[in-house]
Amino acid sequence: xxxxxxxxxxxxxxxxxxxxxxxxxxxxxxxxxxxxxxxxxxxxxxxxxxxxxxxxxxxxxxxxxxxxxxxxxxxxxxxxxxxxxxxxxxxxxxxxxxxxxxx
Length: 103
Description:
34% helix; Alpha-Beta Plaits; globular
């Protein structure tokens, strides 16, 4: 399993639209679902900073994710540009691989 985490600070008044676009049925997940190595997306909202969200995108592997990004570069960038107006900041928090011995 491979996990990509992004943190977003959403512009006030854009919370509902952000949640629709970045949620498990949103535009990003729809694009990701075109790849069989995509597993799922979780959208989390910070309980103490209500305009701060995390997206958690799960993939089979880092290689699968990177291959998807290369093959879908134009579509990825188009959605990214379209969504810029929804957020104040966007930060990649990390990309994590599951350890083989995690039980």
